Amino acid sequence: MTGSAQDAGFSITPPRPGRLPLRGRDALVETILRAAEPPAGTTRAPEESAQILWGLGGCGKSATALEVARRLEARGRRVWWISAKDSARVSAGMREVAGQLQAPESQLDLAWAGKTRSPVELVWALLNESDRPWLLIFDNADEPSLLAPLDGRVAEGTGWFRQPRTRNGLVLVTTRDGRQETWGDWSTMHPVKELSPPDAAQVLIDLAGDAPGTPAQATGLATRLKGHPLALRGAGTYLAEANRIPVGGAGVSIRTYDGYREALDRRSAAGTTRTVSQAFDRAVRPVVQSWEMSLDLLAGRELAQARPVLRLLASLGDAPIPYQILLDPARLSASRLIGEIGEDRLREVLRSLADFALVDLGVIESLPVRSPVAHVVTLHPLVRELVHDHPDVIADRAAYHELVLTLLDVLRLRDPDRPREEEFDPDEPDKWASWHVLAPPTTGAVLAFFDAGELPRTEPELLTTALDLARLIARYLLAVSLPGQAEIFLERCLAACRRIGLDMRERAVLSLRHERSRAALEQGQLTWAEKELREIIPAREALLGREHRNTLASRHKLARTILEQGRWADAEQELRDIVRAEFRVRGPEDRDTMTARHSLADAVVAQGRYAEARAELTEILEIRLRHWAPDHLQTLTVRHTLDRCRLLEGQAAEALADLRAILATDTAKREVQHLGMINARHTLAEALIATGERVEAEKVLAAVVADRRRILGDDHPETVRAEAGLRQLQGG
């Protein structure tokens, strides 16, 4: 799995099917299966290659799609499941699709950095060329614009969602948006409605069994619940639990289908359903009533904290929430919303919420089981939305925002002078797996706080926390090569800063502007990045001083921007000044000092002063080997640049031996298509030629040419250089 796709909510493997059968969707499933694999002697209409399942939240759209996925996967079809809840998950998911279709990681890096063909066109070219049948599912696409082309509409069919040009492919979307004009007349629309009374009754019986009453009584309750699958699930799990542990007398505990139906009637008559969102019709109200009854039951079992904990979870972003690290009992206990709650009580609350189908507890299998972020709690989207919009939550929104940010404060870095020792430093590769899980809920919470009316203006301490978390999120997105997502996120945060009335030259805001400039630099927006950095640097100098670590960071990015534009001498002069300052401020062996020195070496190499660059790189490598793993990718990159200098100075045998060692590491084998490792293989071929091993050199160089053609194109200077070397080697 590619680095950018590992985070929770970014997995593209279909979820595990539930233990109970899917009821009432057989005809719909068969229709979609026929579209995927038309009967012999028939052809598929073009619009049947794009299928839309639409309906109310919680009506079973995703469950139906999962059943289709399960059956087609069993027939040998490749299946991808993309969460379409936000642009980050769509982008990361489609990047992983491209990786599974054998696109090299280096090619993906270029596409996602905006340096070659667009990611959308790259992925769809691979899909349309695939020989193996496939199914691509966009789940929870309630904001269709996330699948649209830039400055366009989904119906144009040129965005992430489009009509396959191959008979091997089928695209399936689940959404609340059932408008044909949204999805285009080239899509087939399928409404997913409430279940019929017999099917709905069977769902209740599947969950609760015979103890609550007869099939006829189950049908009566199913009808009262309007056949809504999520309401049925809530009622069925409630009755199953009430009968499994029958606490209280017959007049107190509700254990039957009839008793549950009568309780719903009493609540409706008393006006206890208090949803204020007009986005939900009457069919959703029983869902609220059913879980309120479940929460009442838990309160009767001395678990009254289940209700505020559920509301807290709904206040975090719409994503799996790593509860081990975020739900700290001490911080929860300090909040008036939760009250005193220890580890055992919190564990019991979460387990009970899961038992009543209000949340799902799971483990992210791609992470070590001991990882502090591996264990996650997830709310059904409809449950989260309704809880989030409950009047009691709205009335106490400020307190929930405060608690959420207090819990997320654990992610902030405490000692910038010792970054490698920070548990959640987003710049360190070994912390990325944690951030894959942490970023989605943290992003949602930060953006929700910024949108919380007057609260950011009236709570400066919370605002400081939110701005710092925003910076960490942006650094993570940039570290895993998602500069486009970083740009979108940062633009929202900076727009909020302007709306709140913050001075754009304040320290925290300048940090966000700095990261925004990095996103522009990595996407090749060099003129814009240079202009912005030339505004940020004097502001940071006035606020912090010319040699403050933050000022130096902006100066370094400006120097990189100048270097990328080919102004090597100017870049070198600025980098030398930066390196001298880094020595004074951070010391000669700091991570950022190493980065600045490597940039300086790049500027020296670009001007042909190889011996000088070699001396610089040798010192950098010695320091890196003292503090970083020998096969760290950046360490290998420094070694390769050093070997290139050795080769150009006539030390071919020494360069050849080290290049072989580099390419034998696990990292190099894993990242064989990374441009840095392709460059190392090119230098290996040149070292082989210099030492007379021409047969092996031709084989290595031919592979380099093929890889560069595929990744960079035929006209890229590095491709041309490799081709020229190969022709010369072959005597052409």
TrEMBL record:
Protein name, as recorded: Tetratricopeptide repeat-containing protein
InterPro entries, A to Z: NLR-like, P-loop_NTPase, TPR-like_helical_dom_sf
Alphabetized PANTHER family for the sequence: AAA+ ATPASE DOMAIN-CONTAINING PROTEIN-RELATED (PTHR46082:SF6), ATP/GTP-BINDING PROTEIN-RELATED (PTHR46082)
The organism's place on the tree of life at top rank: Bacteria
Start and end residues of each stretch annotated as Disordered: 1-22
Source organism: Micromonospora matsumotoense
Gene3D superfamilies in UniProt: P-loop containing nucleotide triphosphate hydrolases, Tetratricopeptide repeat domain
